[in-house]
Amino acid sequence: MQRTMAEQMAALFKAPPASDDLATFRPGPGFARLPIRFDIDKLRQALDQVLAIANYDGEGLYAIPLTRKPGEESSTTGQHNLSGRYWIRPDASYREFAREGPVEEHRFTEFVPDYDGTYLRHVYDELSRHVRIGRMRLLKKPPFGANSFHRDPEARLHIPIHTNPGAVMVINHHCTHMPADGSVYFTDTRAYHTAVNGGEHDRVHVVAALAEA
Question: Which pTM does this prediction carry?
Fold first, then answer.
C-alpha cells in the first residue's frame, strides 16, 4: 500500500541524520586514499617557506605553481597555466561548453627552483616515482568559497595541508572531506566536480595533475 505524504514525512523525521563522522574521508566513485603518506608538519613548514617567497596569484584562483616547463623564467606564464581547459554546463540548457585553452601537462617537468630547499621538492620527487606529474600547485580556497561545477581533462592528486570539517569536495554525486594528515588522495576530476570551503579558515591543498595521456 502506498504511504500517504504524512506517513512518509513521519518516517523521514523519525531518525535525525548522523553528523559525527563528517570530518572523515569516505572513499567512493572518483575518490581513493593512496598508500603513501607525507609528514604534515613538514608540509606546513614548507608552505610557510613558499609563502615567504611567493604570493597566491591568478585573479581569484589563489594558486602558486610548483612545477613549470623547462626554460620558463616565470612559472605563471600564461593565465591558462594556472587554470586551463575545462568543461562546464553553465545554464538551464544543460549544454556543455569548453572554457580556456588546453594545457600540455606532460611539459611541466621542472620543479620551480625557488622551492628546491623545501619539503615540497621531496613530495614532488616521491610522487614522480609512482606517477607522471604535470602541473603541481598550491591551491587555496578561502572561507565560504566554492569552485564552479566542471570537469577537467585529467585526474589529480590532492594533499591537504590546512583544512576544516566544512571543506568538502564533490565528484558527480559523491561528496567527502579529505583530512589534512599527510594522506594523498586520488580525485578523478575528469568527472564533474567542485570544491567547497564552508568553514571559517583557509583550505590549502597541494594539487598535482596526472599527465598520463
Answer: 0.92
